[in-house]
Amino acid sequence: MKDWGWRLAMLAAAGVAGYVAKSMGLPLPWMIGPLLLTACLGLAEIEIPRHQYYRPVGQLVVATAVGLYFTPDALAEVSRQAVEMVAAAILTIGAGFTSALLLYRLARTDGSTAFFAAMPGGPAEMSVLAERWGVPGAPVVFSQTLRIVFIVLLIPPLLMYFAGISIPRLRPVAEVNLPGLVALYALAAAGTVVMRAVRVPNCNFLGPLAVGALISGTGFVLSGVPAPLLAAGQVLLGVSLGAQFTRQQIARDIRFSWAAVIATIALLAQCAAVAYGLWLITDGKLLGGFLLATAPGSVTEMALTAKLLSQGVAMVTAYHLVRIFIVIPLAPLLYRIYRYTMRGWMVFPDGDAPGSKKNV
To answer: φ and ψ at 52, to 5 degrees?
Structure first.
């Protein structure tokens, strides 16, 4: 009971941080406020009471709400950009390769750690793959989480202040109906279970998203998602992200920490260039939407940002889903290609010197 008391106190403080961020006019205030609060507490070596289900529950809440914006018109627009989505995913993989090389040079780490830390995937998914190849998971989780935090903290404010995008006053897709809301989230939870059973990556997001999109795409209405519930989901996501950072973790390898920051910025810059290119060749009106769509990771947060800023939520989410279903299942193959192409530039953890064919 004592643990739960501390957890509730932490969530209350995170809620206050979200309210302050909202009062300051920040984008994603209910996520960014708690994220900054918990990150500061972690860096101050203050233990953060949290639960392992914060992020899955937050993803359930947010993904279901995002899925409801997959209207038939939005889905038709998505289908017209299928080729561009695959091309963007391939270019993002290339950006991951170059960022891995930069991380390798700056951090003086091994080639395998650099690959799994820099390739845009999820912290959990990429760390598991890294450990299968004998790479420690901790630096991979740190770098992957750092990338997500940078995306959340940088892209929405940049869209607001430099692209002239403001936060509209959004209304729910449908009126809130309590029995329908309960049924909606029961189905969304079932979608998570099904996705996990068939081993779909990022099932905690994709399951509820698929349910919401299926319901909205067929024109069937159960309920809208009330704003307080959506804010609560963002608070859970913000706390779970910010709590990943501790002074001990950063102090363990200062060089790797700074190198990861620089490699992350380089990756974001490359993906922004991809977004600009897509915007030019598609004659699209939503440059902000393409920036969100090609952001290297963080599908939950970018889909939510697209929803809040009216930047084509279906398009943004679809771009991310294509990237996820290319990068995650093909990660072992991509790693082999990476080792083959980089064998003359890097040392890998089995001790082979650069240029050795034993690494192939």
So the answer is: -65, -15
Distance CA 109, CA 129 (A): 17
Question: In the block, which residue shows the tokens 């490699």?
Answer: 263
Residues in the chain: 360
**How many CB atoms are closer than 10 A to CB 262?**
14
- Strand boundaries in 12-127, DSSP class E: none
Dist CA 34 CA 23 (whole Å): 14
How do the pLDDT tens digits run along the chain, 360 residues long?
A: 567 788 888 999 999 999 998 888 777 788 889 988 998 998 888 888 777 888 899 989 988 988 887 777 777 777 888 899 999 999 999 999 999 999 999 998 999 999 999 998 777 678 778 877 888 877 887 888 888 888 888 888 887 776 666 655 555 556 888 899 999 999 999 999 999 999 877 788 888 988 988 888 887 878 888 889 989 999 998 888 888 777 776 777 788 889 999 999 999 999 999 999 999 888 766 788 899 999 987 677 788 788 777 788 888 888 888 888 788 778 888 999 998 888 888 888 764 444 444 444
**345-357: string of b/e by CB count within 10 Å (b at 16+)?**
ebbbeeebeeeee
Q: How many CB atoms lie within 10 A of CB 193?
A: 10
Q: 247 to each of 39, 42, 44, how far by Cα in Å?
A: 10, 7, 7
Contact 126, 146 (CB under 8 A): no
Alpha helices per DSSP H over 253-312: 254-282, 287-293, 299-309
How far is it, in rounded angstroms, from Cα 274 to Cα 318? Answer: 16
For the record, the structure tokens of 128 come out as 């598991």
DSSP track, 26-43 = -SSHHHHHHHHHHHHHHH
Cβ-Cβ contacts under 8 Å for 132 (sequence gap 6 or more): none
Q: Tell me the domains of the chain and their CATH numbers.
A: 2-347 (1.20.1530)
Report the alpha-carbon distance of residue 148 to residue 170 in Å, rounded: 25
CB proximity list for 124: less than 8 A, separation 6 or greater: 141
Contacts of 313 (CB under 8 A, 6+ apart): 66, 69, 70, 74, 303, 306, 307
